[in-house]
C-alpha cells in the first residue's frame, strides 16, 4: 500500500528513520506498515478500563486513516519504537539536577545514569543546572573550590558523546542556566569554540527582573543558588549584549522566559518550570516527557470548485477557490488528542527510572501543534507574515486549542481527570483557568465556525 501523500524522498527518509529492521540492520517495513504498527500499538491502550467503550480495532482504523492521510504526524519515537523491545514512545524528557555528587536520587551522577538509560531508548533530555553551586565557591566538606555548572555540563556532554559512538540515534540534550546564576557569563560563552559541547543545545533562563534591568540600564544581581543571597552584581546590558553576540555568532544560547512560562504553568502546586526538551517545543516538569504530534494544516484545506467544470467555481472566502476545512480540522484535533492521550498509557517507560512513568501519568501532559502553515496560507491566498496571515494563524491556533480542550474534557468524563488536578488551574473546587485572549484582534471572516468558550 503506497502513501500517495509522500514523494519518493520522503518515503525513503521515513523508512530509514522509523522502520523495524532485520538482524542485519536492513529496514523491513514500508511507510504504510510503519503507520499500521504505530496505530495498532497506540490503539491497544483502548483495551483497558479507561477506553470509554470504543474497541481498539475501531480506534485503530481511525488512527491509521488519520496517519495514512498525513493529517497528523506523531513524534518520531512513537513511530520508531511502537511494538519494539524498548517501546518508549516519547521523544524527550526533563530531568532535575541537584547540587550533590551522588548521595541523592537527583544528584549529579545519579541523574547522569538516568539520562544515559533514557538516551538509549532514543529519548532526548533537558536539564536545568541552576542548582549547581558556582565556580570557585567553597565546598564545606573538603574546603576545596567548586568547579561550577559548566564543568558538569561538559561531563554530561562527554558521556553522551561516548554513548553516541555505539550507534543508533545521536544523543540530544538541552542545558538551561537561569540568568541570575553566578556562572552565567561562562555558560553564555561555553560553545563559542567550535567542537566544544556538541551534544547540548544551551539556553539562558531569562527573568522579568533581568529584562527590567536591561531596559533601565541597571546592575543585575547574581545570586547563590543554595540560599538566594547576592553573590555579585553585573551590568545587565553587558550581560544581555554577550547573550546576543554569542547567539549571533553561534546560534546559541537560546533564551527561555522563566517567569512567563510559570505564569502559564497549569500545575503550579506540583513544581516550578525550569527547563524544556532539547528543541524547546514544550516546558516540562521534573521527569515529565513530551508526547508530541503535529497537525498537518496542508491537509486541512478544501477546494471550493471543480476544475474543468464550467460554472462550478465558487469564490473562496480567502480567494483562489480554497478555504480552511474547519470541520475536518476539528475532527482531526479531536482524534489526535485521543491518540496522544493513549500514548501516555501505551508508552513503555524506562523501567530503571520509575519517576518517568509516575510523572507522565500524574499530569498526562501532551503537546499538539502544527506544520504546513505556510502551505495552507499559500493555497488560501493569505500572505505569510502579513497582518492577515498573523490573524489567520491566531484563529487557527485558538480553534485547535478549543477542540483539543473539548476532547480532553470528553475523555476525562470517561477515563477520569488527570491525578494531579487538585490544586491545578483546572481544580473543580477552585478553577483558576481563564479563557485565552488572542494576541491579535480577530476581525476577518475566514469561514471559521463560532467558538463558545
UniProtKB/TrEMBL annotation:
<dbReference type="InterPro" id="IPR000788">
    <property type="entry name" value="RNR_lg_C"/>
</dbReference>
<feature type="domain" description="Ribonucleotide reductase large subunit N-terminal">
    <location>
        <begin position="5"/>
        <end position="86"/>
    </location>
</feature>
<comment type="similarity">
    <text>Belongs to the ribonucleoside diphosphate reductase class-2 family.</text>
</comment>
<dbReference type="InterPro" id="IPR013344">
    <property type="entry name" value="RNR_NrdJ/NrdZ"/>
</dbReference>
<keyword id="KW-0560">Oxidoreductase</keyword>
<dbReference type="GO" id="GO:0071897">
    <property type="term" value="P:DNA biosynthetic process"/>
</dbReference>
<dbReference type="InterPro" id="IPR050862">
    <property type="entry name" value="RdRp_reductase_class-2"/>
</dbReference>
<dbReference type="InterPro" id="IPR008926">
    <property type="entry name" value="RNR_R1-su_N"/>
</dbReference>
<feature type="domain" description="Ribonucleotide reductase large subunit C-terminal">
    <location>
        <begin position="90"/>
        <end position="428"/>
    </location>
</feature>
<dbReference type="Pfam" id="PF02867">
    <property type="entry name" value="Ribonuc_red_lgC"/>
</dbReference>
<keyword id="KW-0170">Cobalt</keyword>
<protein>
    <recommendedName>
        <fullName>Vitamin B12-dependent ribonucleotide reductase</fullName>
        <ecNumber>1.17.4.1</ecNumber>
    </recommendedName>
</protein>
<keyword id="KW-0215">Deoxyribonucleotide synthesis</keyword>
<keyword id="KW-0237">DNA synthesis</keyword>
<dbReference type="GO" id="GO:0009263">
    <property type="term" value="P:deoxyribonucleotide biosynthetic process"/>
</dbReference>
<keyword id="KW-0547">Nucleotide-binding</keyword>
<dbReference type="GO" id="GO:0005524">
    <property type="term" value="F:ATP binding"/>
</dbReference>
<dbReference type="InterPro" id="IPR013509">
    <property type="entry name" value="RNR_lsu_N"/>
</dbReference>
<dbReference type="GO" id="GO:0004748">
    <property type="term" value="F:ribonucleoside-diphosphate reductase activity, thioredoxin disulfide as acceptor"/>
</dbReference>
<keyword id="KW-1015">Disulfide bond</keyword>
<dbReference type="Pfam" id="PF00317">
    <property type="entry name" value="Ribonuc_red_lgN"/>
</dbReference>
<dbReference type="GO" id="GO:0031419">
    <property type="term" value="F:cobalamin binding"/>
</dbReference>
<keyword id="KW-0846">Cobalamin</keyword>
<comment type="function">
    <text>Catalyzes the reduction of ribonucleotides to deoxyribonucleotides. May function to provide a pool of deoxyribonucleotide precursors for DNA repair during oxygen limitation and/or for immediate growth after restoration of oxygen.</text>
</comment>
Amino acid at each position: 500500500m503506497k502513501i500517495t501523500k509522500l514523494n519518493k524522498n520522503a518515503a525513503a527518509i521515513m523508512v530509514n528513520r522509523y522502520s523495524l529492521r532485520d538482524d542485519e540492520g536492513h529496514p523491513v517495513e514500508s511507510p504504510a506498515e510503519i503507520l499500521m504498527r504505530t496505530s495498532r500499538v497506540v490503539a491497544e491502550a483502548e483495551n483497558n478500563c479507561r477506553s470509554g467503550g470504543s474497541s481498539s480495532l475501531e480506534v485503530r482504523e481511525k488512527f491509521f486513516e488519520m496517519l495514512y492521510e498525513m493529517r497528523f504526524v506523531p513524534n518520531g519515537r512513537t513511530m520508531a519504537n511502537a511494538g519494539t523491545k524498548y517501546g518508549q514512545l516519547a521523544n524527550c524528557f526533563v530531568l532535575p539536577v541537584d547540587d550533590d555528587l551522588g548521595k541523592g536520587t537527583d544528584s549529579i551522577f545519579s541523574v547522569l545514569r538516568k539520562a544515559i538509560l533514557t538516551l538509549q531508548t532514543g529519548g532526548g533530555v533537558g536539564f536545568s543546572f541552576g542548582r549547581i553551586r558556582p565556580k570557585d565557591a567553597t565546598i564545606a566538606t573538603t574546603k576545596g573550590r567548586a568547579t561550577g555548572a559548566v564543568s558538569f555540563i561538559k561531563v554530561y556532554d562527554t558521556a553522551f558523546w561516548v554513548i553516541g559512538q555505539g550507534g543508533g540515534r545521536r544523543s540530544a540534550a538541552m542545558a538551561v542556566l537561569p540568568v541570575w546564576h553566578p556562572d552565567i557569563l561562562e555558560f553564555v560563552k561555553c560553545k563559542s569554540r567550535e567542537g566544544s559541547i556538541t551534544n547540548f543545545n544551551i539556553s539562558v533562563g531569562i527573568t522579568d527582573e533581568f529584562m527590567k534591568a536591561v531596559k533601565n540600564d541597571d546592575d543585575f544581581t547574581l545570586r547563590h543558588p543554595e540560599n538566594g543571597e547576592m553573590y555579585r552584581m553585573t551590568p545587565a546590558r553587558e550581560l544581555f549584549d554577550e547573550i546576543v553576540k554569542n547567539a549571533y555568532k553561534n546560534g546559541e544560547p537560546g533564551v527561555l522566559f522563566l517567569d512567563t512560562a510559570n505564569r502559564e504553568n497549569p500545575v503550579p502546586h506540583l513544581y516550578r518550570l525550569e527547563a524544556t526538551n532539547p528543541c524547546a517545543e514544550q516546558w516540562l516538569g521534573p521527569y515529565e516527557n513530551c508526547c508530541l504530534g503535529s497537525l498537518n494544516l496542508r491537509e486541512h484545506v478544501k477546494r471550493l470548485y471543480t476544475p474543468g467544470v464550467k460554472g462550478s467555481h465558487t469564490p473562496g472566502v480567502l480567494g483562489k477557490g480554497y478555504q480552511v476545512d474547519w470541520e475536518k480540522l476539528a475532527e482531526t484535533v479531536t482524534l489526535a488528542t485521543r491518540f496522544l492521550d493513549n500514548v501516555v498509557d501505551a508508552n513503555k517507560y524506562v523501567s530503571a527510572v520509575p519517576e518517568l512513568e509516575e510523572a507522565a501519568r500524574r499530569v498526562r501532559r501532551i503537546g499538539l501543534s502544527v506544520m504546513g502553515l505556510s502551505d495552507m496560507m499559500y493555497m488560501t491566498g493569505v500572505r505569510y507574515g502579513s497582518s492577515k496571515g498573523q490573524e489567520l494563524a491566531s484563529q487557527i491556533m485558538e480553534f485547535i486549542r478549543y477542540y483539543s480542550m473539548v476532547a480532553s474534557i470528553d475523555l476525562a468524563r470517561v477515563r477520569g481527570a488527570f491525578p494531579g488536578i487538585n490544586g491545578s488551574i483546572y481544580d473543580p473546587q477552585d478553577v483558576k483557568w481563564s479563557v485565552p485572549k488572542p494576541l491579535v484582534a480577530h476581525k476577518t471572516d475566514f469561514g471559521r465556525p463560532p467558538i463558545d468558550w
